Amino acid sequence: MDSYFSLTKVAAAAAISFYALFGSIFFTRKSSTSHHHENNKTLPSSSSTLLAPTSPSSHNCKHHVFPSFHGADVRTNFLSHVVKELKSKGIDLFIDNDIERSKSIGPELVEAIRGSRIAIVLLSKNYASSTWCLNELVEIIKCREELGQTVMPLFYQVDPTDVKKQTGDFGKVFKKTCKRKSKEEIQRWKRALTEVAQVAGFHSSSGKNEAEMIEDIATDVSNKLNLSAPCTDFDGLVGMESKMTEMRSLLQLDSDEVRIVGILGSPGIGKTTIARAIFNRHSQDFQLSIFMDNIKRKYAVPSCSDDYSVKLYLQEQLMSQLTNEKNIKIPHLGIAKDRLKDKKVLVVLDDVDRSIQLEAMAKETSWFGHGSRIIITTQDETVLKASGIDHVHRVNLPSDDEALQIFCMYAFGQKDPKDGFKELACQVRYLIGKLPLGLRVMGSYFRGMSEQDWKEELPRLRTHLDRDGEIASILKFSYDALNDEDKSLFLHIACFFNSLQIDIMEDCLAKCFSVRKGLRVLSEKSLIHTENGRIYMAKLLVQLGRQIVQKESGKRQFLNNTSDIGEVLSDEEAGSNSVIGILLELPDKITLTGERAFERFSNLQFLRIFGLDVNPQSINYISQKLRVLIWSQFQMSCFPSSFNPEFLVQLRMRDSCLKKLWKENKLLNNLKLMDLSFSYDLEELPDLSTATNLYALSLSYCSSLVELSSSIGNAINLQKLDLSGCSSLVDLPSSMRNLPKLSKLELKECSKLEVNLANINLESLEELDLSECYLLKSYSADIQEPDPWKRRISRLKFIKLSGMKKLVSLPQLPDSLSALDAENCESLERLDCSFCSPDIRLNFTNCFKLNQQARDLIVHTPTNKYAVFPAEEVPMCFTDRSSGSSLTVNLNQLPVGKSTRFKACIIVERVFPGNLCTFEGEVDETEDLFSDDEGEEESRRYSGSICCSITSRGNSLTYCKKKQVEGVLPGHLCTFEVEVETEEVTSTELLFDFGLLISDSKTWTVNECGILQLPEVPSDIDDGVNRLALL
């Protein structure tokens, strides 16, 4: 690197690069962030470096970026702007000005390169005039090859081809530098220049101005640094590594057997934390993974349901989340085994309290593919014994030392007490005990207090605990320290608002509390946490809050206890004006209430009821002050005229018998969320003229709903509208053009809906589902293709058009699109568009009428994901084709650099055990002729990972490259891209071998495959547009 501020150049031979160590971290970490994970290439360690290698985990990074450049070309212009932009983003560059003059520059440069995480090579016209730059580049490329170093070339006023082939003005400068140099040295320089020219980077002549390009460079560097940062979420947890070691010994992760492991312990002891740590560290090693938390409460079912219905419901939840299918249907309990028996999965079932939950979701190891692991957390040992789970990790209380460290982490932010606090911290820890939850809560309580504050609090703590030795007393101590307003907010959350949206709670309590401030206080005291816009409180703290309320005499504000609710609602003389909230949770059951159950609750504001035990006629006597109403399976066809929704913030009446909500127009100016899903009898939506604050409306599977009121156009803050399954809906009102914030619109299975896109405000849409909307209209003529709408949907990311049987063509879609699902569009012929996102996923399953131009477009669309369309054989555009699962590619025709990209394709085939009959066109006698149609359809699809292994004369060039695909049918071509590192190629032939991972080879096989070598991509920007243009 030339001196950045006029320092003397130093011999490049001393600048042995080792900083590539951090590049290997980047490549490893980046792939681990995906839910469906791809394996990474294993990078060899350096065997000939100046200093001994340092492991990534122990290496201390000194700089983010090491720049290599020719100072005279770029120092005072382009480079200075790059440096300024990087520093503005908090990115640290090595600048040789920082080298202490008393030290040799050679070792200092070596240390700087080794201590930098990314190398930027700024290739300018006179870069090759400097032997220092060239020798430095040789070392950078050497580290990239040996250690996976992240290298980012910037081509400043030079052509990448001239750099690669040493031609043009760049070549002239290089040839001048080569005079009187050894042949070996020249060859090293040429090879380094060729390699760096083929790395994707940035080009100053790409069409963007320098300011835009510099911003892109800084953003790309920042993203790479973020992805390379190691996960430290669990590093500060005391004793976690020893628990992880114990868990790994039980899990036996290297074994191919299927193993179910239980984590057993009391509430608040850390079971969920251990399971979460295991999941975060190892989920990338499995084909599918899921963490189902808080099963006892989140997936509760009505107590009146029979066991079989309960199991169906639970298995439906498991499969829906594991396969990412929103409305999956489970007709019988054999579905999980049928779908998962060939897949390596990691499933965590957290807080299981009933054997029936395991029977539904993890009954037998035979349900899951080889190498699968199922982790169960529970506080009930009988659940594990009843399920025959022998591998159990018992979570014990921490040791005295560990307990003190846990307390200190929350009290002082470090594992040891601060100076002067050791004795006080030990006393408090002794009084609290060793339950991790209590240590966390009490540590947070004492955090920030002075030594004198601690001394004043100790006597009160001793008195409190001596009076009541239960766990609740530990937690109540922090509760008692809150001011009256924060105490009340704590009780509101524990008794009603736990797991609800924060903004709903704010609107409900704004007149009584400073909600945001209170939530901040409770969070700082470790009494709550927030996630995805919802508020959560630990189970022990919920129990504490409800116990406190239950002990209130004559002025109880909330009813949560099942027996109390049943007693009070059944006794028409036992009402209370002090009660403001009632929460009846599943699977709790109460005795059937009377018609006047709510008559005496005149101040009731919050009501959550699950089940059929509350007499629906009691709604006639409900409070006029109601702000939250959640009542599943409500049995009346209409609210009474006396019902007042004026103050409602949330109305959720799922699975109700409602035909209409009310007859007269009602004020709805406070309403934010309305959910009437699965109310199959609903025929009419209320007037929404005053619902100006409504942001979410769900009417999914309201199959009797014929039309939406034009008043919906007044819901100007509406963001999410779900009309899925509204099979009687025939039109959307033109007033929907007045919804400027609508970002998600679901119209799936609206089979009678004449979707006129002119009636929808498309500008803000990010997700649009038009699946099985057979009657899609354009703006003008009644032709079966969408109107040219690109300008109006510039934010669209996901669009589903499945089952639109009359759709003939697709117009140009926005560059923002990352997923297009056009399955079963049986009339689709033309694709009058291109796909620019490098992460686009294309599904044209069963689109048999696609013309050749459309098929060519799909094949040649560059994507990091995959594309599927009908094909009985590999198209001729793939230069190498073969029957079976492998083929050989000859590289003689095109020059091959360090790496080359290929477009690969396969056609899968389903075969039957025993007779190996293909599925298409033949019937196997072992088939269940009475099987569910949807289940049969699903079994005809391959979902899993496609592995592509590449070898050259027996030498493996890739670790199995995996591509995760979903629902590929026989008779369809699945295309994707692979990249092969060709540095070690010793033959002109490459052998490509395709396999279907975690699948039964007797059920699915690769029938045909093909390879197309892609042209070399200019090194300026590796985007979809440029790559597509080359094809």
TrEMBL record:
EC identifiers of the protein: 3.2.2.6
Domain TIR: 61-225
Low complexity composition bias: residue spans: 42-56
Reaction(s) catalysed (UniProt annotation): NAD(+) + H2O = ADP-D-ribose + nicotinamide + H(+)
GO biological processes: defense response; signal transduction
Superkingdom of origin: Eukaryota
Region described as Disordered: 36-56
GO molecular function: ADP binding; NAD+ nucleosidase activity, cyclic ADP-ribose generating
Keyword annotations: Hydrolase, Leucine-rich repeat, Membrane, NAD, Plant defense, Repeat, Transmembrane, Transmembrane helix
Transmembrane spans: 7-27
Classification via PANTHER family: ADP-RIBOSYL CYCLASE_CYCLIC ADP-RIBOSE HYDROLASE, LEUCINE-RICH REPEAT-CONTAINING PROTEIN
Full protein name: ADP-ribosyl cyclase/cyclic ADP-ribose hydrolase
UniProt organism field: Raphanus sativus
